[in-house]
Amino acid sequence: MDVISGYLFLSAMLFTIGALGVLIRKNTIVMFMCVELMLNAANLSLVVLSNAWGTNDGHVYVFFVMAVAAAEASVGLAIIITLFRNFYSIRSGDAYLLQG
Amino acid sequence: MTAVMIVFGILTLASACGVVCSRQPVHSALSLVATLFLVAVHFALLGAHFVAAVQVLVYAGAIMVLVVFVIMLLGLDANVPEGVAGWGSSFGALLTGVAAVVFGYVAISGRSFFALKEGAEFWAVDGTTAGIGANLYSNHIFAFEVTSLLILAGIVGAVFLGIEKKRPLKAGRGLKSMQAAQKEEALR
Predict the structure, then answer these.
(1) Is the ipTM of this complex over 0.90?
(2) Which CATH architecture fits A3-94?
(3) Is A28's Cβ below 8 Å from some Cβ in B?
């Protein structure tokens, strides 16, 4: 297995593990961390494919993805804190009402 | 594929499994920090030096501090069970298994499909800060400016969500009413 295939495989497995965590865990903080895992898997494949094409455009995209992840972290964690404040729980199944 | 890459790849997958499988959120967070550092090692091995440094600074430095801080702030009791895994979780696991097979097949066979070569130019990509900066501030300057708008929106959203609402919540719900109920219980 060469470097490109190996790293694409590693990226695919990391993404799958993150998706598994989002689907089967009920703790919203753990779900959030699994989303970060999926973003990292996408970053890894971006860097490998960028190298395969011989440019550093993919490295720049990874920079943008990290900026999006930082914004997502600030808003997502604020949402989790609001959830805890309103329901005294951060289990995803406990917030099932849309009314305020 | 050198031995270093294979060893660090296996370590990365193991710590990623630790994120999903840990009972306590703090253990998940520590596993995620390990995973982020190991992915940074992969970036460095691939010659993406700037990305590796930013990965450690932004992810392991800033985002994980926020996550650990929230875990500490909420003081979550690890003994609270997450609930029995229902048919939804089983269906999710099944779906992810299928996705793993498809993604793995595409990853291994996709290289020849897209005619990607791993020649000298694979290792000659300029991943230093100078190279990334030259590309970022010439070809991607508009996206860079839009990113500042995105970060601003994130800050405003976080502050808005963090404001304590004056409006009282409905009886029986919310942290305050829960605490009041607990106080009444203790007095009795």
Answers:
(1) yes
(2) Orthogonal Bundle (1.10)
(3) no
